[in-house]
Amino acid sequence: MAKVDRVLEMIAEKDIRLLDLKFVDVLGMLHHLTVPVEVVDAEQLSQGFFFDGSSIRGFRGIAESDMILRPDPATVVCDPFVEGPALSLMADVLEPGLREYGRDPRGVARRAEEYLRQTGIADTSYWGVEIEFFVFDNVRFQTGPDASFYYVDSAEAHWNSGRVPNGGYKVKHQQGYLRALPIDEQTDLRTAMTRQMQALGLVVERHHHEVASAGQNEINFRFSTLTDTADKAMLYKYAVKNVARAHGKTATFMPKPLYRNSGNGMHCNQSLAKDGVNLFYDPNGYANLSQIALWYIGGLLTHADALLAITNPTTNSYKRLVPGYEAPTNLAFSRANRSAAIRIPVSLSPKTTRIEFRTPDPTANPYLALAAQLMAGLDGIRRRIDPTAAGFGPVDIDIYHHAGSAAVQLKHVPSSLRQAVEALKADHEFLLEGDVFSEDLIETFIALKEDEIRNLETHPHPVEFEMYFDN
Q1: pLDDT of residue 337
Q2: Contact at 8 Å (CB) between 306 and 297?
Q3: ω into 105 cis (within 30 of 0)
Q4: How far apart (Å, rounded) are the C-alpha atoms in residues 384 and 165?
Q5: Residues 71 and 145 placed together within one structural domain of the fold
Q6: What is the pLDDT of residue 318?
Q7: pLDDT of amino acid 323
Q8: At which positions is L-glutamate bound (predicted)?
Q9: Pairing mode, if any, of strands 355-357 and 49-52?
Q10: Is 319 within the bounds of a domain?
Q11: What pLDDT does 81 receive?
């Protein structure tokens, strides 16, 4: 109740007029419900607010549509994008009677953290996600029975050097990483995004231009616990999109919006701790990793095919996961090696020793993606899966330049969403431990993904006209 009282105090202190309650659907799309403060009291904040769950993808049917949003007072911040002024709170989705709803992604994340404590292995998991995105000046697309196309443009793109006056300062092909002004035209835009992220409670540590040729960016925020990191990932995307829109631009987290350019990843740094001690650290281990960390890696890579259906959940995701462009296509672990699916970053202290799973992308629902990775890692610890014995390395050479050689014989990530979904069908028992995920949620997720796959597979593609029209 103390946290609820704090929300009421903020309403009075800051003359708040609105509460904005945010939640996500099964696929990770952010939704919100706005409530005037005149109808809000402590009981309402504790009991929640009714909404129609039948209109949310993957939730309830029309015959059982009443559902509840119960705001989490610990997540309260001022929302810079809602006129009011307004407070923003992340909300849990509940059934009538305040029962947990098995398809609520935030509930999955919280249950994963509780399951971790129940195992006795650790009491806390820490997560730092590195989210990349593109900002374009012009975006147009259309799909219909008679036409299909997309068009994107960026003022800083190299293809505009011959189209505009004084076009000399452009990002050359794949040479955008850490470029300075005037090449990096989006420095001030990222700073504006940073300020709004700070207003939303994120501790931003740095921002910079990324590798690709046209408006690829990255802003890093400080690591935290699992559910809190997922909350902040949703607010990160919320801020990026709204600031871009305010500046007359459009942001996208699509993994591969540009052909022959680097795509957007969501690299997931992770570690386990117990009583404040980092369980992944061992000064005598490979790359200072403990045996627990190696077993955790074994679980991640053993279940990677199924995991990717959740961490790389779009058909576009697999256009990023192709050789080159620093996208991991082989399942291996390695010290400080960006060509491996799991990289062990150089660490300056025992506290910061961690692993980085580089395969995920930001179209993933962060609550489900982080929870699924944790469950795979814990399964590796429980079963003591040795990643070296399982054929995952370590591989301390550039995999891109040795792929297929006798020195590197590795397993590959799925080449399509269909392959990943089929793997999830066959391998998801590890997600069901501790009732973290449910069969119902997994079946719902798979059905939604199969609809997307069929939609793409049944549409003619412009490239098919180029290849086959005159046959």
Answers
A1: 72
A2: no
A3: no
A4: 62
A5: no
A6: 97
A7: 82
A8: 320, 326, 338, 358
A9: unpaired
A10: yes
A11: 95
First to last CA, the chain: 71
- Could you tell me if 52 and 140 lie in one domain? no
Residue type, 373: Q
Please list the helix, strand and coil fractions of the chain in percent, rounded to the nearest 5, in that order.
Answer: 40, 25, 40
Cβ atoms of 342 and 300 closer than 8 Å:
yes
| Domain boundaries, position 47 | 2-99
Cis peptide before 85 (omega within 30 of 0): yes
- Quote the pLDDT of residue 400: 66
CB atoms within 10 A of CB 413: 22
Q: How far apart are CA 279 and CA 320, in angstroms?
A: 32
Tell me the binding residues for ATP. 205, 221-223, 338, 351
Please report, for residues 7, 18, 75, 219, the alpha-carbon distance to residue 37 in angstroms, rounded to integers and kept in the order given.
11, 5, 17, 33
DSSP run (H or E) holding 237:
helix 226-246
283 and 380 co-located in one domain:
yes
Beta bridge partners of 136: 250
Q: What are 382's two structure tokens?
A: 């429980």
Question: Which amino acids are annotated as binding site, given as ranges?
Answer: 130, 132, 205, 210, 218, 221-223, 267, 320, 326, 338, 351, 356, 358
Residue 231 belongs to a domain with what CATH number? Answer: 3.30.590.10
Do 341 and 355 form a contact (C-beta atoms < 8 A)?
Answer: no
Could you tell me if 136 and 22 lie in one domain? no
Phi, psi (rounded to 5 degrees) for 409: -120, 95
Which residues, in sequence order, are CB contacts of 51 under 8 Å at separation 6+? Answer: 33, 67, 68, 69
Detail the residues annotated as belonging to a binding site for Mg(2+): 130, 132, 210, 218, 267, 356
Residues 233 and 339 grouped into a single domain: yes
Using CA atoms, how far residue 363 sits from 85, 250, 339, 421, in Å, is: 30, 16, 21, 15
Q: What is the pTM of this model?
A: 0.95
Q: Are residues 71 and 146 in the same domain?
A: no
Give the residues across from 135 on adjacent strands: 251
Residue 81 burial (CB < 10 Å; 0-12/13-18/19+)?
middle
Distance from C-alpha of 110 to C-alpha of 360, rounded to nearest angstrom: 20
Query: Are 289 and 434 contained in the same domain?
Result: yes
Position 411, amino acid: K
Look up the CATH number of the domain holding residue 24. 3.10.20.70
Question: Which residues are the active-site residues?
Answer: 52, 130, 132, 210, 218, 267, 338, 356, 358
Kindly list the distances between the CA atom of residue 168 and the CA atoms of 164, 187, 321, in Å, as whole numbers in the listed order.
9, 18, 32
For 357, which DSSP code? E
The pLDDT of residue 408 is 59
Residue 353 · residue 414 · CB < 8 Å:
no
Q: State residue 175's pLDDT score.
A: 79
